[in-house]
């Protein structure tokens, strides 16, 4: 296979040449759809969402390219400190975090509002990848080799769930679990683990959820029971999507969205608005766009020679895929309403940065896919 | 080592492939659900979307106006600024009212009323907080609307009566439909909609009401109207105007002329039967009822002994007293029991068995013929006439002239407004006693059990004046009125007519000195006084010093009556007027009745020139006396 024989590019020009430009194009396309939709949300105005989304996307895009250019050894060396830093910030949120809509999610650092759970998504991926990169593959399924990943995953997930931000907690936890699976955990551990996981999940829903979260889960199971309460969002979202039909009501013609029947349409429910205005064709087009991005991610992961880059790529890919899946499934009433945005299309700064940083890592992995660093200290490049 | 690595890579790729397959499955699931929603269930959700998006708002029809015979406005609509509250959007109603009270005054009573109304109204239905809000307050509330969720300002129409006192009884008023009437009708349940509750407003309600329209509107998730879609709306059909036969100028004059007396008047066009004046005093302000009258003010009105809420003109019943003497005379002439020139000598009283029947003039009138008897209102003469006629023949003629008839003029009347003209059968059924000559005597001078409304007295006057079966109406007739001739000789009508002219224009007439004529040059009038006894002063009271009506409390004093018509040469307008407890008719009723009649004559559309010329035969004014 030619990829294995390719040299690892060293200088910037070679790296730029190696950049997966098709992937970059898909990302830009997605960001533009976001701008288009946020322009519509405001009723045909750049203000307040579209223009800020565009500038954030532009900044994030540059971050993505910079991240792609940085040699992977830098990420490896940053993995543990970043993780510990993010963990510290999560504890700080728990202690001093700003409360918004009943949840503590932000830290105000001077003028900047930091959402540590977003940093943690990247940091966890890096930390786990680094750990497995350094761990001999035969030790992956030993008790000693399992305790660290379990702690590395459980600590942040627990802190995020306590904020409470169930969506991010599930997303972060699932990413970690997929990475452990991809790292080569033995089926002998996985099967009993899944059984225990299902049991634990049921117990968690029963006893570990806040009242409003339980209500959401119950409402999800039967939204028509509470058409004006917690089920309202799901019903209105389905009405908006369903009434869009095959070709939609036309750009900026989405009555459900524009008459405010649709909640939080600039963030979590933007896909609904897209589906209402562009119909099934538009919705499928966006899903295909994401699928193409994810396909590129999978190809990159499989092309990588190093465990670190493989796992980083798959970690980011899993997070990205879960964003898309949970968000779209949520607005269609397939999963409970949890606050998960649609990557690069939903309005929101922290998520945009997280996603584009992650995609930068994947682009970097693509550039450095042929590199085969030894275990231990990061010696890429 | 290399094999290990390759094995690890292979395992990773296998598992990545599995994860990818899971991802493909998940995306397929999403796509399938999207297909289900947008393709398979599209129609279903499109309907739900339309239901979200559009809603029908009821559009209130403009209520028709009520106009007088010359097109003057009696009832119309003016813009009214209202403030509603919708609980669904307001959240806690008490809090919403607190917020609103920063910009407008909300009294404790109103606050309680609104909270009570809110509690029993569906969440999405607006409840009136205030109506008839002044412009300043209204615009202030509008300005601060963003801070006042659930508050809905609205400009609507409210019924207004520019001549409130004059038309309170005739036009009536409108109010919100009470729940038992409103039922489930969304129009009637609308807080701004009013239905007729009395008078013309209730009698012609369906006509005045029009029909509601429906306005298709686009609403947002909070129920706020974003856009109106007039092409898909049905316009409200405004109500029709209703024209009355009343002359509002004269009506207003009559109401003022009667002033604070407890009195009523009915004026008819004797040719057409059209009611040109119908007033009852004291009156009230129907505008108060439209917006909801405070209970204290209503109690004051309801408990007032002068009964301002009661339309005395059609529902008040009084003994007609001497005003009936023309009727008795016509009966006597028809049956030949009394020749016009035949004289009866009045000595002040007549003995009948052990009872003494007095003439109002204690010293007696001496010998009087029919003309004089009417002119001076001699009771003795009519005792004699009545005894010769007998009750049956009196009653027959009285009924022909309108007694005992319920004239439906087109506004709600009480069932007893038909009055009463007694008969032996009636007396037996009522008291178990037989009819006596004394009863006939009493009926002969319009006392006893005889009861008539001012409307009936006006009809009686019109029939005496024209000899035709005039029927009253409050609404203009289509085409000329053709009333059947009553079965009286012209000569008899003429004789009675001349006697009534004599009452006013001949010395000795009961109204000669007090009126001195109509007060319009070249136009003479006919009239008849009446004093309806309410309480008879007993000998014992007389001994105690209660000598006259003025010594009695108001509610025991006699009613004063006066009927009249003019021009005497060609009768056009008839007026009947009753002043409750006003004392003698000559004193209390004659002047206001004459003034109102004069007003009618002066305002007659045909003009004064037409008045004098109309009569075919010249009248011999020298006759009688």
From TrEMBL, chain A:
Protein's cellular compartments: Cell inner membrane; Membrane
Transmembrane segments: 20-42, 54-74, 80-103, 140-160, 166-183, 190-209, 278-299, 311-338, 344-365
Pathway named in the protein's UniProt entry: Cell wall biogenesis; peptidoglycan biosynthesis
Pfam families according to UniProt: FTSW_RODA_SPOVE
Protein name: Peptidoglycan glycosyltransferase MrdB
Organism: Glycocaulis abyssi
Primary localisation category: membrane
Keywords: Cell inner membrane, Cell membrane, Cell shape, Cell wall biogenesis/degradation, Glycosyltransferase, Membrane, Peptidoglycan synthesis, Transferase, Transmembrane, Transmembrane helix
């Amino acid at each position: 296979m030619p990829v294995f024989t390719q040299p690892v590019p060293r200088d910037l020009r070679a790296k730029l040449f190696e950049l997966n430009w098709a992937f970059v194009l898909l990302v830009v396309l997605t960001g533009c759809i976001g701008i288009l939709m946020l322009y519509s949300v405001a009723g045909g105005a750049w203000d307040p969402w579209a223009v800020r989304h565009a500038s954030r996307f532009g900044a994030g895009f540059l971050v993505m390219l910079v991240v792609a250019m940085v040699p992977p050894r830098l990420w490896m060396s940053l993995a543990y400190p970043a993780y510990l830093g993010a963990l510290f910030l999560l504890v700080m949120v728990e202690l001093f975090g700003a409360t918004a809509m009943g949840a503590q999610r932000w830290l105000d650092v001077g003028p900047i509002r930091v959402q540590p759970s977003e940093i943690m998504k990247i940091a966890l991926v890096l930390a786990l990848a680094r750990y497995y990169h350094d761990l001999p593959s035969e030790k992956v399924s030993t008790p000693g080799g399992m305790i660290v990943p379990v702690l590395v995953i459980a600590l942040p997930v627990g802190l995020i769930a306590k904020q409470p931000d169930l969506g991010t907690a599930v997303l972060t936890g699932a990413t970690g679990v997929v990475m452990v699976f991809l790292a080569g955990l033995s089926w002998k551990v996985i099967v009993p683990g899944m059984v225990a996981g299902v049991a634990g999940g049921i117990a968690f829903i029963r006893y570990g959820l806040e009242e409003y979260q339980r209500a959401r889960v119950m409402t999800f199971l039967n939204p028509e029971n509470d058409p004006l309460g917690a089920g309202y969002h799901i019903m209105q979202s389905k009405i908006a999507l369903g009434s869009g039909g095959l070709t939609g009501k036309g750009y900026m013609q989405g009555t459900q969205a524009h008459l405010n029947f649709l909640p939080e349409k600039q963030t979590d429910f933007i896909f609904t608005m897209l589906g209402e205005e562009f119909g099934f064709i538009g919705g499928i087009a966006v899903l295909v766009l994401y699928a193409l991005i994810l396909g590129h991610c999978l190809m990159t992961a499989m092309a990588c020679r190093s465990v670190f880059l493989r796992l980083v790529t798959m970690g980011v890919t899993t997070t990205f895929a879960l964003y898309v899946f949970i968000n779209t499934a949520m607005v269609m009433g397939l999963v409970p309403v949890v606050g998960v945005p649609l990557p690069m299309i939903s309005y929101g700064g922290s998520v945009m940065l997280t996603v584009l940083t992650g995609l930068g890592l994947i682009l970097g992995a693509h550039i450095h896919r042929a590199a085969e660093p030894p275990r231990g200290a990061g010696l890429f490049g | 080592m290399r094999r290990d690595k390759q094995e690890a890579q292979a395992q990773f790729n296998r598992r990545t492939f599995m994860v990818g397959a899971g991802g493909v499955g998940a995306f397929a699931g999403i796509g399938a659900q999207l297909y289900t929603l947008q393709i398979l269930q599209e129609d279903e959700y499109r309907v739900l979307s339309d239901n979200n998006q559009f809603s029908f708002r009821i559009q209130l029809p403009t209520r028709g106006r009520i106009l007088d015979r010359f097109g003057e406005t009696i009832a119309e609509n003016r813009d009214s600024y209202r403030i509603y509250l919708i609980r669904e959007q307001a959240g806690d109603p008490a809090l919403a009212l607190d917020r609103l009270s920063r910009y407008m005054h909300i009294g404790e009573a109103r606050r309680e009323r609104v909270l009570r109304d809110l509690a029993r109204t569906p969440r999405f239905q607006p409840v009136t907080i205030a109506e008839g809000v002044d412009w300043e307050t209204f615009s202030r509330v509008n300005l601060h609307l963003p801070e006042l969720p659930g508050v809905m300002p609205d400009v609507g129409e409210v019924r207004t009566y520019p001549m409130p006192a004059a038309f309170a009884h005739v036009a009536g008023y409108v109010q919100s439909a009470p729940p038992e009437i409103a039922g489930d009708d969304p129009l009637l349940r609308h807080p701004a909609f009013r239905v007729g509750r009395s008078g013309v407003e209730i009698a012609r309600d369906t006509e005045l009401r029009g029909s509601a329209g429906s306005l298709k509107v686009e609403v947002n998730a909070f129920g706020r109207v974003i856009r109106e879609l007039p092409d898909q709306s049905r316009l409200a059909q405004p109500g029709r105007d209703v024209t009355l036969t009343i002359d509002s100028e004269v009506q207003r004059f009559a109401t003022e002329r009667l002033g604070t007396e407890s009195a009523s008047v009915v004026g008819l066009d004797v040719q057409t039967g059209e009611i040109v004046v119908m007033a009852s005093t004291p009156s009230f302000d129907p505008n108060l009822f439209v917006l909801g009258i405070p209970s204290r003010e209503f109690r004051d009105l309801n408990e007032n002994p002068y009964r301002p809420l009661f339309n005395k003109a059609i529902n008040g019943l009084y003994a007609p007293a001497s005003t009936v003497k023309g009727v008795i005379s016509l009966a006597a002439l028809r049956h030949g029991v009394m020749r016009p020139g035949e004289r009866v000598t009045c000595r002040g009283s007549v003995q009948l068995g052990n009872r003494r029947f007095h003439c109002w003039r204690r010293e007696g009138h001496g010998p009087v013929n029919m003309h004089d008897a009417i002119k001076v209102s001699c009771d003795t003469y009519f005792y004699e006439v009545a005894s010769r006629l007998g009750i049956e023949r009196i009653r027959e003629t009285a009924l022909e002239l309108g007694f005992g008839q319920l004239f439906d003029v087109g506004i709600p009347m009480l069932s007893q407004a038909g009055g009463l003209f007694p008969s032996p059968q009636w007396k037996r059924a009522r008291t178990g006693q037989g009819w006596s000559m004394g009863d006939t005597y009493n009926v002969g001078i319009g006392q006893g059990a005889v009861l008539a409304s001012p409307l009936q007295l006006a009809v009686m006057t019109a029939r005496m004046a024209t000899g035709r079966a005039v029927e009253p109406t409050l609404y203009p007739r289509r085409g000329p009125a053709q009333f059947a001739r009553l079965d009286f000789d012209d000569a008899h009508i003429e004789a009675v007519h001349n006697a009534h002219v004599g009452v006013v224009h001949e010395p000795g007439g009961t109204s000669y000195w007090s009126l001195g004529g109509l007060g319009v040059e070249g136009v003479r009038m006919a009239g008849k006084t009446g004093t309806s006894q309410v309480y008879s002063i007993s000998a014992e009271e007389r001994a105690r010093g209660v000598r006259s009506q003025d010594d009695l409390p108001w509610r025991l004093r006699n009613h004063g009556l006066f009927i009249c018509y003019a021009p005497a040469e060609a009768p056009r307008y008839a007026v009947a007027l009753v002043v409750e407890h006003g004392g003698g008719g000559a004193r209390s009723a004659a002047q206001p009745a004459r003034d109102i009649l004069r007003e009618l004559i002066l305002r007659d559309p045909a003009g004064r020139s037409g008045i004098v010329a109309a009569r075919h035969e010249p009248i011999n004014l020298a006759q009688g006396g």
